[in-house]
Amino acid sequence: MDAFFASPEPHLCRNLRDACLRRTPTIVQSSPGLDPIVDFARSCVRGLYADPRTLESRFLYDAQGSALFEEITRQPEYYLTRTEAAILAAHAAEIRELTGPTRILELGSGSSLKTDHLLKAWLERGGPTRYYPVDVSSAALSAACAGIRSRFPAVEMVGIQCQYREVFPLLAQLSPVLVAFLGSSIGNFAPPEMLAFVRTLAAALRPGDFFLLGVDLVKERSILEAAYNDQAGVTARFTRNLFVRMNRELDAGIDLDAIEHAAWYRQDQELVEISARFTREQSFRLTPPGRVITMGQGDLVRTEISRKFRMERVIPELEGCGFAAERVFTDSQRWFALLLLRRRPLYSPRRAGKRPL
Ligand code: TRP
């Protein structure tokens, strides 16, 4: 992902405002600026000609990919989801105390299952509970909205199907708001992109608004590598699904049997690198734009990175982007952290040396 400086989208804003006024659970979509197939094809060509070869991870989440990701979160090796859910369960009421009755907007909401803890805490304190799940996958979003509707009929909800950056122009009109970004999805950005993302988010929020951020912490290699190489092979299917999608949508004709999943921890950069490896040479063409791509035996295509964080480093970084850390919640093993950040008032001097833990 490159620029996060989205121009306001009048179409999306209007739809969202209308949906909020009607108070009917609705899904709004961003205005289709670019044909989704052309967008996918262009991105694949750009990525497969790049060095190193990469594919944009937002394309992992089609209907099948989103379902596979849900299955990943249930694997015994994938500790992230259940650890974060336990932290949320333990502290949701306290978070609600600290934020007051804000709206909740969740970026990359997926199944929205962990959000139950927040919604429960909001509902318990009374008053309207307004929830805006945002996801690129319309299938995941519809399923999540249907689930929330049946579990929490009192929640007023508008699902927004778009990329993260497209929703930034809406945030000011949702204030007071808590933006939740869970699952350590922030670790899927490279460092400069992460900073651009956090700065843009800070600029889009009103001072006093909240940012609830889940981050996975640095830990032993074996635990990290197991989480991205589950025994049941679900993560491998998730990686391969990107090529299944290329075959289906771009008529690529890739031999899927010649693709294997590879994920390892790079200690020097403190990140897990997730790739597809071609086990045989093969050429294929993507339509449109119809260019031939040749992959050699052993060639890797990186599909994702997942950075692991150190609290003492990430908190000052986030504070440098316009937020103050209000509270840090973690589990007893310190495997995962949930940070409650608050948009600092504009132009106020940075509070130095004060790190609530
Ligand atoms: N946000 C998740 C993470 O970094 C995404 C993820 C989990 C993922 N497993 C994956 C992405 C496997 C690609 C491949 O943990």
UniProtKB/TrEMBL annotation:
Superkingdom as given in the UniProt entry: Bacteria
Gene3D superfamilies reported for this sequence: Vaccinia Virus protein VP39
InterPro entries with a match to the protein in the record: EgtD, EgtD_Methyltrsf_superfamily, MeTrfase_dom, MeTrfase_EgtD-like, SAM-dependent_MTases_sf
Top-level enzyme category: transferase
GO biological process: methylation
Keyword Repeat: no
E.C. number: 2.1.1.44
The keyword Transferase is assigned to this record: yes
Matches recorded under Pfam families: Methyltransf_33
Stated name of the protein: Histidine N-alpha-methyltransferase
Annotated organism of origin: Geomonas paludis
Gene from which this protein is expressed: egtD
